Amino acid sequence: MPSSTRRPLRAIQQIQIGRISSTEDQARETLARLVAAGFEGIELNGFMTRPTPLIVRALTRVAGMPVGGGGRLDWPRLVADAGLSVVALHEDLGTIESARAEVVARCAEFGTRNVVVTGMHRFDYGDEEAVARLAQRLTVAGHAFANDGLRLLYHNHTAEFRRLPSGGTAFAALLEQTDAEAIGLELDCYWAATAGADPLLLLDTFGERVRLLHLTDRGSRVTGPTMTPIVKADSVELGTGNLAVDPIIERAIALQMEAVILETHKNWIDGSPLRSAEVSADVLRRLLPS
Question: Is the pTM of this model over 0.90?
Answer without folding.
Answer: yes
